[in-house]
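Dear V.,

Thank you for sending over the compound details. I've combined the ligand you provided, zinc ion, with the protein sequence from our construct and run the structure prediction for the complex. I'm sharing the raw inputs here so there's no ambiguity about protonation or stereochemistry in the SMILES, which I know was a concern on your side last time.
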Amino acid sequence: MSNVDGADAPYWSGLAEGRLLLPRCTACETWIWPAVSRCGHCGSDAIHWIERAPNGRIFSWTRTWHRFGLTEHLDLPFVSIVATVDDCGIRLLGRLDDPDQVDPVIGEPISGRIGATRAGERDIPTILWSRS
Ligand SMILES: [Zn+2]
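Below is the predicted structure of the protein with zinc ion bound, written out as structure tokens.
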């Protein structure tokens, strides 16, 4: 999780409110990720945060079988997903709601909801993806 004072602060505060907000350059309309304070495409610093539906397709996934730091509150195994969000191309990490442990398929459509992951003593806002 990034510093809440960083360029991606609106992403995290959006998730905390149950909304997916993603940054887009107002000047050239390029979606920007990871979030930065100036557009890497045209140099503008006019960046707006736009609410997007948490829908996308699986870009990559990993099933984790062994515990590592800050995962002590997750049931094993768990599946991490990188999904490409529809219509903006931004790829976001989240966790798959994985009750049946069927392997995900690259390109499979998924939809997300905003949940949280308990990490140590904190709840970190997390996108929980489900198969569409
Ligand atoms: Zn731009």
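A first observation: The mean pLDDT is 91.

Warm regards,
I. M.
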